[in-house]
Amino acid sequence: MPSQQCVAVDSSPKLHSIFDTINTTLAASEKRTLVPVGFYDARARKFMDLILMEEEYSGYAENLEYRQLGIGHLLAEVVSRLRNDADVTRFALFGCHDSTLAAPLGALGALKGENDTWPAYTSSIAIELFHERKRHQDQEGSKDGLSDLYVRIRYNDRPVYLPGCQKAGDHLRGDKGFCTLARFKDIVDKFTPVDWKSACVSSLGNSAFPKEIEPAGV
Questions:
Q1: Could you tell me which of 2, 7, 19 has the C-alpha nearest to residue 121?
Q2: pTM across the whole model
Q3: pLDDT per residue over 19-46, tens digit each?
């Protein structure tokens, strides 16, 4: 970086690139692969994390269009697999970059607390489907076929509690970490793009900020 130039989100190199380089060296087994010691300052890394989380993910929490174009299509595929393929597909694996990994949490309103930090190396999200066995065989299922089915999300093996699943009837009795599949689908449907390509060019030239915040996960 040229002398006298400050580090910034849009500097050259960008703050994102610097942060990624620091994290890469921390994950490296060869300790010869290091950057100058000043880059490892805990306070500096904390501020970089805060800035980059705001830059990359705040849109998911505040903007419906951001959710639709950023992660809507992928989560819609997940919902489709949960509804239609669970009997034949026991395990599905998706690979992605760190910048994609936290997007589902942001779109579902769950990128908060201990989750509100840049995804570390080897981070993962598990989306699991469960079926509740009824005590009485004569109980009928719902017409949409989603009755007694629940979704649990684990981020780095920690349960994720979706804000849209906290009301009675929207989760498994006694455990708010198990969202009903019907409620999970309802949340995702709200930001599933009908025509992704058309949606990509529908707001060109408009402000990236909505007139009012459009909260995620509700």
A1: 19
A2: 0.85
A3: 999 998 888 877 677 888 888 999 999 9
